[in-house]
């Protein structure tokens, strides 16, 4: 779509959408939202970019290879965090018993592994949305 | 105490492999193959160790993240789930080795990595469903399993595959929703999602809510019946299993439908318990559907011209046997049905793999073109013959033993009418399996003289088939190998 208004608005609005997505991901353990919803917001910002600037431009910004590596690393990150629980003497995905830093409830840095897991989920969901969208319009 | 984590390691290694495969450089298929074989060997070793540990120290439950079972997710590792986990991993190991060569013939090279990703997610969800002790967790794994099975059918990208997988997707979504509704009703009655906790709650209060529980079980069994292809709900199976690539059809027919039956066991005997299930009269209805399926599946199979379609209809009949054993709700019936799960899994994968080899080598799927093929492909057709004889129930092959156990169970439950149905179904099996064997070995081929020659199939395809055939014969002569394990697994359901 070659429209100056859409392109300008997109260029203005995409950073705000992304910041909001990152905010939702990072505050997953203390406020409504979390990895999935934040990741969806983050992914939709790139979908908006692809819609207004076209696939070639978007693939230059975030190539297919990068999104698939991000997807894989999201899951692997989750698995590694979970295995850390076993390594530290508990069970898979153990949080407090394994001695992770619990902090003050309601603070940003608290709740042990949950923010780390939310981060992994957020990356995974965002990159999956981008990959799915790009794959679908590539095949069209 | 490290051994208690083994089931988790199995699940995680399968999941990690599934996500690592797509980022390996797609030109180096050798690396992907090495990774696949390594992961499956690790999973196989860990499954064997899990089974040993369970026999030595007894079953145990594994709570994720040390949350208690009322709010957390729990795996149960007992004689049943460890044994069936080993069965799933071992059989799929053989099928995946076969697929490494056969899949080059079936799909485009750029789809290989996608196919193996799907296969590993499929294995992950099957093992998850086998090990889980949580109803909602079971539902999640069931959804993953449905979607991946649909994708490994449609990966061939032909019109009939799309048709089959669309039908599969629609019916299975209805099945999933039905299961979810049933789980919601059970949750309404008991306020729990953990199977053991529901059992404890429901055994006290079931007299107050008989209708609720009956409706819940009805929904769950209908959903699982769609997924496991019990007779009137089987309409998706023949298309799906016959059009899919051969390794997919072997996986789907010999393992995937069985996993839904494991869930049915769990729901009936672990969540509700024998008293409630028999009190509500549920097993009797299961036997009716099973008996109709045993006859009708075989009758449909007689009319088929396509070899894989015939095998798919035969699965419908064999699933009837399994549900008949389940519906008796006795110890003998349950062990016969578990034994038949193992033996049907082995026989049906041998049949599908040998049928796939015929398609690979001769490019022929029509049953009428198979005259004299026993002289061209002696090893493949021997495997096919052994497994076909097993399906008919000729002594010395595992299918005979499972029919024998089932017959004893039927007589023990004092329902001799089902013995007649088992016999009729066996005769019908003979009607459609024997002509293939006879025409393969005794008829003259149209194009060449019947001179015995060893076929030049790749070794990777021959060896798994031969191993499965040897296992089928070994179980036929020494059924105690499996039966001792089955007899240890049954008490986890019935006391």
TrEMBL record, chain A:
Keywords: Cell membrane, Membrane, Transmembrane, Transmembrane helix. The keyword Nucleus does not apply. It holds the Pfam family MnhB. It comes from the Bacteria. One of its GO terms (cellular component) is plasma membrane. InterPro entries: CPA3_antiporter_subunitB, MnhB. Its main location: membrane. It is found in: Cell membrane. The keyword Electron transport does not apply. Residues 5-130 form the Na+/H+ antiporter MnhB subunit-related protein domain. It is a multi-pass membrane protein. The chain crosses the membrane at residues 12-30, 36-55, 75-93. Belongs to the CPA3 antiporters (TC 2.A.63) subunit B family. This is Sodium:proton antiporter. It comes from Alkaliphilus serpentinus.
């Amino acid at each position: 779509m070659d429209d100056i208004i859409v392109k300008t608005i997109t260029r203005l609005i995409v950073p705000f959408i992304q910041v909001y997505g990152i905010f939702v991901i990072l505050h997953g353990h203390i406020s409504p939202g979390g990895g999935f919803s934040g990741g969806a917001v983050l992914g939709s910002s790139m979908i908006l970019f692809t819609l207004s600037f076209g696939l070639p431009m978007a693939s230059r910004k975030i190539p297919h290879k990068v999104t698939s590596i991000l997807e894989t690393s999201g899951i692997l990150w989750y698995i590694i965090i979970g295995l850390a629980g076993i390594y530290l003497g508990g069970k898979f995905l153990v949080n407090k018993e394994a001695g992770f830093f619990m902090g003050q409830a309601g603070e940003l840095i608290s709740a042990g592994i949950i923010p780390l897991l939310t981060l992994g989920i957020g990356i995974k969901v965002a990159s999956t949305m981008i990959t799915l969208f790009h794959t679908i319009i590539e095949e069209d | 105490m490290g051994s208690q984590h083994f089931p988790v390691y199995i699940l995680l290694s399968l999941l990690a492999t599934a996500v690592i495969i797509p980022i390996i450089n797609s030109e180096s298929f050798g690396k992907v193959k090495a990774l696949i074989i390594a992961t499956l060997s690790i999973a196989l070793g860990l499954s064997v160790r899990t089974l040993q540990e369970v026999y030595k120290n007894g079953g145990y439950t594994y709570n994720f993240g040390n949350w208690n079972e009322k709010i957390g997710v729990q795996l149960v590792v007992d004689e049943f789930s460890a044994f069936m986990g080993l069965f799933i991993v071992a059989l799929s190991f053989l099928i995946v080795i076969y697929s490494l060569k056969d899949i080059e013939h079936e799909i485009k090279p750029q789809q290989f990595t996608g196919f193996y990703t799907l296969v590993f997610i499929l294995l992950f969800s099957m093992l998850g469903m086998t090990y889980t002790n949580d109803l909602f967790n079971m539902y999640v794994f069931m959804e993953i399993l449905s979607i991946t099975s649909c994708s490994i059918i449609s990966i061939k990208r032909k019109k009939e595959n799309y048709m089959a997988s669309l039908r599969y997707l629609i019916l299975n979504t209805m099945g999933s929703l039905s299961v979810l509704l049933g789980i919601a009703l059970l949750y309404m009655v008991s306020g729990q999602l953990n199977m053991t906790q529901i059992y404890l709650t429901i055994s006290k209060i079931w007299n107050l809510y008989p209708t609720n529980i009956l409706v819940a079980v009805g929904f769950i069994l209908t959903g699982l019946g769609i997924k496991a292809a019990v007779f009137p709900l089987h309409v998706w199976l023949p298309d799906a299993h016959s059009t899919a690539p051969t390794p997919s059809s072997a996986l789907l027919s010999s393992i995937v439908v069985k996993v839904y039956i494991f869930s049915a066991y769990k729901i009936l005997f672990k969540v509700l318990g024998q008293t409630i299930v028999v009190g509500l009269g549920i097993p009797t209805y299961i036997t009716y559907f099973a008996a109709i399926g045993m006859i009708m599946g075989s009758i449909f199979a007689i009319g088929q011209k396509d070899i894989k379609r015939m095998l798919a209809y035969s699965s419908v009949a064999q699933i009837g046997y399994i549900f008949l054993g389940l519906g008796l709700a006795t110890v003998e019936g349950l062990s016969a049905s578990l034994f038949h799960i193992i033996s049907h899994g082995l026989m049906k994968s041998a049949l599908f793999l040998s049928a796939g080899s015929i398609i690979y080598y001769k490019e022929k799927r029509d049953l009428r073109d198979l005259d004299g093929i026993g002289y061209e492909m002696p090893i493949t057709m021997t495997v096919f013959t052994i497994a076909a004889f097993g399906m008919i129930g000729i002594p010395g092959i595992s299918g005979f033993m499972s029919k024998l156990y089932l017959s004893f169970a039927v007589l023990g439950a004092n329902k001799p009418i089902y013995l007649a149905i088992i016999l009729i179904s066996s005769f019908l099996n003979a009607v459609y399996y024997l002509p293939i064997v006879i025409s393969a070995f005794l008829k003259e081929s149209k194009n060449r003289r019947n001179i015995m020659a060893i076929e030049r199939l790749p070794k990777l395809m021959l060896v798994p088939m031969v191993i499965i055939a040897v296992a089928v014969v070994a179980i036929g002569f020494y059924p105690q190998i499996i039966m001792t394990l089955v007899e240890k697994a049954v008490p986890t359901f019935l006391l």
